[in-house]
């Protein structure tokens, strides 16, 4: 039986920050598939940290679109990140599940996504670390 996952937002932030460092390193190493995968993982954990800080009940979900829907109940302005969250969710599935076609990512595709979610990550971290939490 796997150990129970933490419901402490700070634990999720710590792992998310490590994943984000991996994204940047993998982009430097010209590994866009690995970078895309870790970008999805980082954003998933940043969203879960934010949601947990709001009293959300932890559940197993990897789809950023679904997590964003949950986050919108606490901050409707996050809707502006919908398109990039959908794109990054696709990176996760490309790396984790075999597809019938040969589909690959490029650094030129992943890096702009990383840049686009920078402000989202900053907002999620600030809200999670807010003294009211």
In short:
With 133 residues, the chain is mainly alpha-helical. The protein has helices at 9-28, 32-53, 64-72, 82-96, 107-116, 118-129. The protein has one domain: Nucleotidyltransferases  domain 2 (Four Helix Bundle (Hemerythrin (Met), subunit A)), CATH 1.20.120.330.
CATH level 1 class label = Mainly Alpha
Mean pLDDT: 89
How many strands, which pairing sense, and closed or not: the largest β-sheet? Answer: none
Helix percentage: 55-70%
Shape descriptor reads globular
- Under CATH, the homologous superfamily reads Nucleotidyltransferases  domain 2
Residue stretches low in confidence (pLDDT < 50, at least 5 long) are none
Number of strands: 0
The CATH topology is what? Four Helix Bundle (Hemerythrin (Met), subunit A)
Q: What is the rounded Rg?
A: 15 Å
- Give the count of helical stretches: 6
